[in-house]
Design goal:
The protein has nine helices and ten strands. It is of the alpha/beta class. A five-stranded mixed β-sheet has the order 1-2-4-3-8. A five-stranded mixed β-sheet has the order 5-7-6-9-10, with helices on both faces.
Length: about 250
C-alpha cells in the first residue's frame, strides 16, 4: 500500500521468513511492479541458527518471478551501494546478504550506483573464471590465489546481480575459451548457476568440460557452525581448490 501511494518501503526480514510471503511478493509487489526493497538477512548458510534458518532457497523462489531484481553484495561496502542503488530503481528489488560480521571493507562516504545487471571482474584469469555469488567472492579469491600459485591461471567474477545477470560478460568469457565455475551458497536447483547455464546453452558453446556448478545439492542442510558446514558441503577453500583443479585437469 505504501509503495502504491508513491513511497519506497524497505522490508527487512530473514531469507527464510520470505518463504512464508511468496504469494505477497509475487502478487502484491511484483505483479504490480511496485518499488519495494526487500532486504534479505541471513541469506546462505547461517550455522548455529539451525536447519530451518539456512537462507539457501531465496534465489530459486524469487528468481523466476517477473519484474524482480536480485542483488548479492560481496561485502558491507557493496551492500551499502546496492541499497543506495535499489532506491533509484522503480521496481521490486531483493538484496540478499549473510548473517554475521562484514569483511572489513572500507565504506565510502557517498555510495556509488551499482550498474544494473553488470558483474565485476575481481581477478583476471586465462584458463578459468570462478563466478562467485555474493560473499563467497572472498572464498573464491583465496581459492584463485592458491590455484594461481600452483600454475593454474584462475580469475574471479563477482556476480553482483543474480537477476538480471551480465549475459554479455559470460558469453564473452565462454567465447574466449575460458572455463566457468559457478560458486553459490544456495541450492543448485533453480539457483544462479542453473539460470546462467540455461542462458549459455543457447550459445551452443557449453560442454561438461567448460562449465561447473558448485553449491548445495538437493538436500536440507543440518545444524552446525559455518566452518563445519562448509567442509561437509565441500564449500571450503581446500575442497574448492581440489574440485576446480580436477575440473581443469579432466577437461584439459
Amino acid at each position: 500500500g505504501m509503495a502504491a501511494q508513491g513511497l519506497k518501503p524497505v522490508v527487512a526480514l530473514y531469507s527464510t521468513f520470505a518463504q512464508r510471503a511468496y504469494d505477497q511478493i509475487l502478487h502484491d509487489i511484483c505483479l504490480q511492479n511496485l518499488p519495494v526493497v526487500i532486504a534479505l538477512d541471513r541469506a546462505g548458510l547461517v550455522g548455529d541458527d539451525g536447519a530451518t534458518h539456512h537462507g539457501v532457497f531465496d534465489m530459486s523462489f524469487l528468481g523466476h518471478i517477473p519484474n524482480m531484481t536480485i542483488m548479492a553484495p560481496k561485502d558491507e561496502a557493496e551492500l551499502r551501494a546496492m541499497l543506495f542503488t535499489a532506491f533509484s530503481l522503480a521496481r521490486p528489488v531483493a538484496i540478499r546478504y549473510p548473517r554475521g560480521n562484514g569483511e572489513g571493507a572500507q565504506l565510502e562516504l557517498v555510495p556509488k550506483q551499482v550498474p544494473l545487471g553488470k558483474a565485476e571482474i575481481l581477478k583476471t584469469g586465462e584458463q578459468l573464471m570462478l563466478v562467485a555469488v555474493g560473499n563467497v567472492s572472498y572464498l573464491a579469491l583465496e581459492a584463485a590465489k592458491q590455484l594461481t600459485d600452483n600454475g593454474f591461471s584462475c580469475g574471479v567474477v563477482n556476480v553482483r546481480y543474480v537477476k538480471p545477470f551480465d549475459q554479455e560478460l559470460f558469453l564473452h568469457l565462454i567465447a574466449q575459451g575460458k572455463k566457468l565455475v559457478v560458486l553459490e551458497e544456495g541450492i543448485l536447483a533453480g539457483g544462479f548457476g542453473s539460470n546462467l547455464l540455461a542462458c549459455l546453452n543457447k550459445s551452443q558453446q557449453i560442454t561438461k568440460h567448460n562449465f561447473l556448478q558448485i553449491g548445495i545439492d538437493d538436500k536440507f542442510v543440518p545444524h552446525g557452525s559455518k566452518e563445519l558446514l562448509y567442509m561437509s558441503l565441500d564449500l571450503d577453500v581446500a575442497s574448492l581448490v581440489a574440485r576446480v583443479r580436477k575440473f581443469i585437469e579432466d577437461g584439459a
